[in-house]
Amino acid sequence: MKKFLNFYSTKVKLKIIVFSSVFAFYFLLSFLMVSPGVGLESLRFINSIHDQISQVMPKGVYVIDGKDPSFNTVLESVVKKSYSADAISTLNSYETVNYEQRRNEYEKFSNDWFESKWSSYREQQKDIDLFDLGNDLVEFDKAVSTEFLSYGYVHAGIQWMFQPGGLSDIFSSERKEDLLRNQTIIDQYLYESKIKSSDPGIDGINVYDSPGTLLINNKVWYLNKQIENIKYGFNVFGHNIFKDKTLNESKMPKTKVSADELYLPHFTDTLDTLRAGVVFFFILLIVVIPGYTFTITMLIINKKKGNK
Fold it and tell me: Which of 19-23, 63-67, 177-181 is predicted least confidently?
């Protein structure tokens, strides 16, 4: 007991500094490990998608003319189907249990999103910039991930932790397997050979079968489909639907997207770091903070008694 009391009564000032420094380091380490999460890797990938959108459909270039006689038809088919094709193509039709049910859920979510975003454009016959459409599709992808997959895919790790069911999701084997699949790349030709879809046209893109989300492969396929949609826009019912009637294939700034132009996310490494950070964080809450509080309190009491 005497040794215990002596510990708190000698070199008090130095011990306060040392314990506070160690505590600050541990707190900062655990905070930095849990804060980014998988969402940081997703953000890097999303930024690479934004870069491609800026190159494929630069702002102000491909603007669908709201006064064009075929505007409503294109909006209700080509634009609307862009959302459903985007979402449904991420479902693995070859392996997903209850595929038809999931497909219907994705399609309903897509249609609701489309109506929320573009119904006013239809009513007011407003021009649509494909740059804005492309960026909204990115926001749509994030919403699909949150709604149907995992909150943690597009949010910070510390937010994921405190979501209902967040901790069990973080440590689930299913989540890690899904993230491993999403960071895997296969030959693009092989991937696209497994996707059965309609060609771009007035009926929009319909996806019939898909191997699902191998993230890079899926987005390369989808972006190139949108490039084909742009080409179709040069000759809708025999005329150019864009406000700039001089646009044609020869003036396209980019005609193909490849896998090496997108950021390859390291989801599983980030998940492992997050898992370790969660353990550190709870050790901090349960052990470190109470221990630090007790130690500093005892040292301060002894310091006030004149011990140095």
Answer: 19-23
Structural domain includes residue 290 = no
Per the CB < 8 A criterion, the answer to whether 275 and 192 are in contact is no
pTM equals: 0.87
Cross-strand bridge partners of residue 64? 128, 242
| Structural domain boundaries, residue 96 | 38-265
Q: Token pair for residue 55? A: 């190159």
Residue 22 lies in a domain: no
Show Cβ contacts of residue 55 under 8 Å, excluding neighbours closer than 6 positions. Answer: 253, 254
Q: Which tens digit of pLDDT belongs to each residue from 157-210?
A: 999 999 999 999 999 999 999 999 999 999 999 999 999 999 888 888 999 999
Any bridge partners for residue 207, and if so which?
A: 197
Domain-located, residue 79:
yes
- Contact at 8 Å (CB) between 41 and 266? yes
Is 283 inside a domain boundary? no
Distance CA 204, CA 76 (A): 9
- Count of domains observed in the chain: 1
